[in-house]
Amino acid sequence: MLQPIDLDVFLACLVAAVIGALFFLQFWYDRRDALLSDHRRLSSVFSCTRCSFTYVRPRRRAEASCPQCGWNNARLKF
Ligand SMILES: [Zn+2]
Q1: What pLDDT does 10 receive?
Q2: What distance in angstroms lies between residue 47's CA and the mean position of ligand 1's atoms?
Q3: Beta strand pairing status for 44-47 and 54-57?
Q4: 3-state class of 3 per DSSP?
Q5: How far does residue 54's CA lie from ligand 1's centre (Å)?
Q6: Which residues, 6+ apart, have CB-to-CB distance to 63 below 8 Å?
Q7: How does DSSP assign 6-64, residue by residue?
Q8: What are the backbone angles phi and psi of residue 75, rounded to the nearest 5°?
Q9: Distance 59 CA to ligand 1 centre (A)
């Protein structure tokens, strides 16, 4: 059997649920943006001096071999 509740209690629960959902969404998107930013910031870009192929490797590294021709290239610095 359902118990009748006051409108004030119902509205207070509703507002608390909405505020909780907004805090959760803010935390979720903030965390996601931080992870994406780290991934982009920590990647290294290379341009092959032999075949002119441009490629990206994860993490900071000084050299990486070209996936097309295997030539070892230095990281591009901007
Ligand atoms: Zn190459």
Answers
A1: 93
A2: 8
A3: antiparallel
A4: coil
A5: 8
A6: 72, 73, 74, 75
A7: -HHHHHHHHHHHHHHHHHHHHHHHHHHHHHHHHHHHT-EEEE-TTT--EEEESS--SEE
A8: -65, 145
A9: 20
Contacts of 60 (CB under 8 A, 6+ apart): 42, 44
User: From ligand 1's centre to the CA of 66, what distance in Å?
Assistant: 5
pLDDT of residue 26: 97
Question: What does the longest C-alpha to C-alpha distance in the chain come to?
Answer: 78
Could you tell me the two tokens for 25?
Answer: 């969404």
**Total Cβ atoms within 10 A of residue 48:** 19
Q: pTM above the 0.70 mark?
A: no
Tell which residue, 76, 35, 34, has the closest CA to residue 52: 76
